[in-house]
Amino acid sequence: MTKAEVITKISDKTGIQKDDVTQTIEAFFKVVKDSMADGDNIYVRGFGSFVNKKRAKKIARNISKNTAIVIEEHYVPSFKPSKVFIEKIKNSKKIKELAPQD
């Protein structure tokens, strides 16, 4: 599902104009990005958490040149779904139908 499809679905469910939904969604994404760039985590009860995860300094290999590269300690954005969200997906009949059968 694309962002445009999400906007359309929200607009249809709420009756709010697509332009207003688009502005709201864009504002939400901007707040998430700006807050995380400032070092803040975002917790949405019943949905999940947007957190900055620390990656330790490590040595990687460039196999084509056979050299070692030092990758400094850094942070990457991450999403951790809430228990409610996880349970909803686990118990989804539609997901189970779509899952490949072993």
How helix-rich are the residues, as a percent range? Answer: 40-55%
Our Rg estimate from Cα atoms comes to 20 Å
CATH topology: HU Protein, Chain A
Mean pLDDT over the residues: 93
- Main sheet specs: 3 strands, antiparallel
The structural domain count equals 1
Return the structural class.
alpha+beta
CATH superfamily heading: IHF-like DNA-binding proteins
Distance between the termini: 26 Å
Gross CATH architecture: Irregular
Describe this structure in words.
The chain has 102 residues and is α+β, with helices and mostly antiparallel strands. The protein has a single domain (3-98), classed as Irregular (HU Protein, Chain A). It contains four helices and five strands. It has helices at residues 3-14, 18-37, 83-90, 93-98; strands at 42-44, 48-55, 58-62, 67-71, 74-81. The strands form two sheets. Strands 1-2-5 form a three-stranded antiparallel beta sheet. Strand 1 and strand 2 form a beta hairpin. Helix 1 packs across helix 2. The longest helix has 20 residues, at 18-37. The chain is extended and about 55 Å long. The two termini are 26 Å apart.
